[in-house]
Amino acid sequence: FFPSRRTRIAMVKFALCLAACVASASAFAPAAKPAFGSSLAAKQDFLEAEPYYDQSTVPVNVYKNKAPFTGKVVSTKRIVGPKATGETCHIIIDHEGDFPYWEGQSWGVMPPGVREKDGKPHAVRLYSIASSRYGDDMTGKTGSLCVRRATYWCPELKADDPAKKGICSNFLCDTQPGAEVMMTGPAGKVMLLPEEDPSTDYIMVATGTGIAPYRGFIRRLFVEDTPAGNAYKGEAWLFLGVANSDALLYDDEWQSAKKKFPDNFRLDYALSREQENKKGGKMYVQDKVEEYADEIFNKLDSGAHIYFCGLKGMMPGIQDMLAAVCKGKGIEYDEWLKGLKKNKQWHVEVY
């Protein structure tokens, strides 16, 4: 049997129609969970407040010590070079979209096990979240931490003393994919980005892993397709202080943002073991900020917000430097600082 031309045309039409039906049905079928690194949305606009800058719905302490959230590690990666002082890791944690947070907030981590001295659970350690609310894969289902492994050098042993190592940082840096992490939070509103005025300048000062919240800021403003990023017309200026070039964190990301947005993103490093300050001493982050003191003070006078994040030992040097600059300008430092705090332009999170 050989079908006529009319029958063959009808058969082709039927086949095309069937293919179209299958294609259209598949468009409405539930999608499989995306692999890490893929994003379901072309835009990152599905975790926004209404309007996007309204901070009245920021989640705080959704999960508490007595009822923590269990996240799963996607990956743990060393992100410093061989000559860095210590080891810093970038840890991506899957929360399946059940642990929302905003840029600038922290997660609490409850390390497994109990304290030797009394058998009670270990205390929660807070870590600034190092990703935007959409996560590194931009699906809104992961978050990242930037953790330095805490070790104690014993001068008598002339080696690290394992009995005195940081319990939580070592637990996190040793995690493998699939490992469970007990978490609390999200915590804090001090480091949130004020986004209502898109021309606001942000000055971000970090030492070491204090870079974490700023990575969230910079991804939101310059990497992701967010309403805040699309509206932004100000300048975000990042100062990072570390010991040497091998200890720089996320440098490739900062260089990419600088290349794509040269008018809106600015970057300065203070490398204490490779650079000298104007007095011939080591270049710390406050020395680098001081080089631009006039510009920074002008920005603050015009409403810029300044952020500090890192070890608490960074703040005395910062404040001494700012007080000296104020004195040189004939400004009363305490009053000046009080004004910044009153206007909510001064943000500090140190540990």
Protein model, in words:
The structure is a single chain. Helix content is 28%, strand content 22%. It has helices at 5-28, 167-173, 212-223, 227-231, 251-260, 285-291, 293-301, 314-329, 333-342, and strands spanning 69-78, 88-94, 106-110, 125-128, 142-148, 153-154, 159-160, 180-187, 202-207, 236-242, 265-271, 305-310, 346-350. Helix 6 packs parallel to helix 8 (314-329). The longest helix is centred in the first third of the chain and has 24 residues, at 5-28. Mean pLDDT is 89; it is low at 15-40.
Strand adjacency order, main sheet: 4-3-8-1-2-5
The biggest sheet amounts to: 6 strands, antiparallel
How many helices does DSSP assign? 9
Structural class: alpha/beta
Compute the average pLDDT: 89
Q: What's the order of the H and E elements?
A: HEEEEEEEHEEHHEHEHHEHHE
Radius of gyration: 25 Å
Uncertain ranges: 15-40
Number of E-state strands = 13
Query: Could you tell me how far the N terminus lies from the C terminus, measured between alpha carbons in angstroms?
Result: 84 Å
Please bin the fraction of helical residues: 25-40%
User: Which descriptor suits the 3D outline?
Assistant: globular
What percent strand?
A: 15-25%
